[in-house]
Amino acid sequence: MEVLELDSLYLSKRILVDTDECKDFVSGGVLVSNIDGTIKRIFTSQEEINSWMFRSTGADVYDFKNNIIMSGLIDANVNICSGSDLEDFSSITKAASAGGYTCIVDNPMYSKPATTTLKNLKAKIVEARSKNSLNIDVGFWGGVTSDNHDELIPMANQGVCGFKAILNPQDSYPDFSHLTKEDLKKALEVLEETNCVFAIKPDIELKEPIVPENANLKDYNTYLTMKHSSMEKCGIEMVLDLIKEHKMKIHLTDLSSSDFAALIQKYRNQKTPKQSTLSVETSLHYLSLASEEIGNGKTEYKCSPPIRNGKNKNQLWDSMKMYDFYNISSSHLPSSIKTKCLIGGRNRGNFIEAANGISSLQFGLPIFWTECIKNRMSIHDVHQLMSCNPAKLCGFDKNKGKLKVGYDADFCIWDPEEEWTITKEAALFKNKICPYFGKTVKGRVYATVVRGYFVYDANRPNETDEPIGTVVLKKPMKRCERALRFTDDDNNGDDEL
């Protein structure tokens, strides 16, 4: 006999389902098994709901009226910065849950330690699992540097969702080096054996850096001139030239310049025997901000590549409407007031000295949805770009990214019509520096559910369930298992996960 009392029912007049029979809004309910936190059934009529409720007296029923229930958001490009005072697993997952995210994937750089070895990956997994600190699920990218090629297959076998690399020495630091062209060639040869996604931030350093004479370092246009779009274009061209001889999954991240579209189309029109598949990603700030609105000394807007002008932003949206982009991310990267040069002193407001990065993860959904409204894109597009496709990219699409029977009961519940103003007081991430404070947006998240448990509820923010998040590891592909030839000499019984 069915154990009805252990199930929970989530009701709404607007449920965005994704089944073989329907891929649209339905008025009904999502039945969740409280045994394993998966979606057990989707009701599409009042009769089905009434029948279940008649047989399930006392069961938990949550009615969200006209608010949308859709699959939880997934951000595949987040700098958690664990091990630093900038952010930690607890603060970032709380902020993410308040934004409707049910899973985020940690970038390999900007953490202590950086995720560049099997040992460091295991240490990061242990840290994430300790102290019951995860509000939502967390996955990991492995890092590719100039000297860690022997670590890539072991990390793939341990469960990273893929690998990431940078090409610009200005973005590198001692624990995470950039790749030269020769380094990239070697990395491609190694990673081709793993069948993992290889994500590359493609901007490179110009041979002759552009430094304006007598430049005002507090003027954003000075920084913008030094980060010309040709840096991105040259890097993309180099990557595309190398990957056409490899059969693998390549993903370009943090694209800021609209110049990418023609290059990508040209590559896809080529036919070579071992051509890689290619997908591209941009970030919230490139789609929502423009250089014209950045005043002198406003270093909270600084990121790399930089936010470009309004014309470029409109062209990115043209590409968005053509579905050139596979997914949208926050590229969340926190900084302190000091490193952002926002405190007194000679360097206050200095765009050259200020740290890169924008913190926006918590507000990603309303930021993107506000711009979608202006550009006549739909909630279905939001679902595809912020939930379904990121799940596929990271290899989590067997149980995440859709409202479908058997999938994790991960929900984002929100009102797309509500207008509100983003405030500093609302921010849950640690360093409250963000260019969106004071901006009015549409779309407010009211609840976030992970495997049937409330991890955020706007109506009772201090009464949500205990942290339910877990570390999400990808099973190794068969090709990776065949290629695995290593002994973990440093490992002992205490290090087993």
Question: What does this 3D model show about the protein?
Answer:
Helix content is 26%, strand content 20%. It is an alpha/beta fold. The strands form three sheets. Strands 1, 2, 3, 4, 5, 15, 16 and 17 form an eight-stranded mixed β-sheet that branches. It has a six-stranded parallel β-sheet with strand order 9-10-11-12-13-14. Strand 2 and strand 3 (39-43) form a beta hairpin. It is globular and about 75 Å long.
Helix content: 25-40%
What is the CA-CA span between the terminal residues?
37 Å
Uncertain stretches = 479-497
Rg, please?
23 Å
> Quick check: average pLDDT?
90
H-E string: EEEHEEEHEHEEHEHEHHEHEHHEHHEEEH
Strand content: 15-25%
- As an assembly, this protein is single chain
Described by the principal axes of the CA atoms, the overall outline is globular
How many β-strands, per DSSP?
Answer: 17
Number of helical stretches of at least 4 residues: 13
Question: What is the structure about, briefly put?
Answer:
The protein has helices spanning 46-54, 89-98, 118-129, 152-158, 181-191, 220-226, 230-243, 260-269, 284-288, 310-321, 364-374, 379-394, 478-483, and strands at 7-16, 25-33, 39-43, 60-63, 68-71, 73-78, 101-106, 137-140, 142-143, 162-166, 197-201, 249-252, 277-283, 327-329, 411-421, 440-450, 453-457. It has 497 residues and is α/β, with parallel strands linked by helices. It contains 13 helices and 17 strands.
Write the layout of secondary structure elements.
Layout: E1 7-16, E2 25-33, E3 39-43, H1 46-54, E4 60-63, E5 68-71, E6 73-78, H2 89-98, E7 101-106, H3 118-129, E8 137-140, E9 142-143, H4 152-158, E10 162-166, H5 181-191, E11 197-201, H6 220-226, H7 230-243, E12 249-252, H8 260-269, E13 277-283, H9 284-288, H10 310-321, E14 327-329, H11 364-374, H12 379-394, E15 411-421, E16 440-450, E17 453-457, H13 478-483
Parallel strand pairs: 1-4, 1-5, 6-7, 7-8, 9-10, 10-11, 11-12, 12-13, 13-14
Antiparallel strand pairs: 1-2, 2-3, 5-15, 15-16, 16-17
